[in-house]
Amino acid sequence: MEDKLDILFQYWNKFDSKVLVSDVRQTETIDIENLIAETTKFCRYSGRLTWILLDWMIRNVDKINIYKLLQITKINGDITVLGLISDLAKQKRDDLNLEFIIKSSKPNAEKEVFFYRVSQSKLATKLTMEQNLPIYDKWNFYCNELRYLTKENELLNRKLA
C-alpha cells in the first residue's frame, strides 16, 4: 500500500500540487483524469492524499475534462469519493464543473467511517461518529476532518466572533 501511495505522490508532484516528496523519481506519463480517478481509490487510506486531491480540485477543476474523469472514475476509481471531494471543494469554490461531478456521483452503499485507519480504533470511531460533519452524512460516511471547509463551521465562527 505504501508503495502505491508513494507512486501517487510522485505523480501529484508533477502536477500543480503542493505535495512534498523526499526524492523525485521517474514515473510514467499519466493524464490528470486518470490520476484523479486512481487517487479516489486510495484517499480513504491516506488523509494526506485526500488533502492533495482536494486542494488541487479547488484550484484547478477547470483544467479537467469532466466527462472523461467521470467515465474513468466509474471504471477505475471510486465515484463516491470523487463526489465527496468535489462537494468539499465546492465549499471553497462555487463551480459548475464541481456541481456536475456532485450530481453525477452517488453516496456510499452503506454508512461507514471514511478513513480506514480511524475505523481501526474503537475510540477514534466513536469520536468520529459523535462529531460527524453533515457533508459526510450526505455521502454516507462518518468523518470529522476538514471541518474548516464546511459552511456550517463558517457560520459558527461568525457567531463566536
Structure description:
The chain has 161 residues and is mostly helical. The protein folds into 2 domains: 106 residues; 54 residues, no CATH class. It has 10 helices and 2 strands; from the N terminus they run H-H-H-H-H-H-E-H-H-H-E-H. The protein has a two-stranded parallel ribbon with strand order 1-2. Helix 1 runs antiparallel to helix 2 and helix 2 packs parallel to helix 4. The longest helix is centred in the N-terminal third of the chain and has 14 residues. The protein starts with a helix and ends with a helix.
List the helices and strands and how they pair.
Layout: H1 2-14, H2 32-42, H3 47-60, H4 66-76, H5 79-90, H6 96-104, E1 112-113, H7 116-119, H8 122-130, H9 134-138, E2 141-142, H10 151-160
Parallel strand pairs: 1-2
Helix pairs in contact: 1-2, 2-4, 2-5, 3-5, 5-6
Q: Percentage of helical residues?
A: 55-70%
Give the overall pLDDT as a whole number.
Answer: 87
Overall, the morphology is globular
Please give the count of helices. 10
H and E string: HHHHHHEHHHEH
Radius of gyration: 16 Å
Strand order of the largest sheet: 1-2
**Percentage of residues in DSSP E strands:** under 5%
Distance between the termini: 43 Å
| Uncertain residue ranges | 155-161
Structural class: mainly alpha
**How many strand elements?**
2
Number of spatially distinct domains: 2
Main β-sheet: number of strands, strand sense, barrel status?
2 strands, parallel
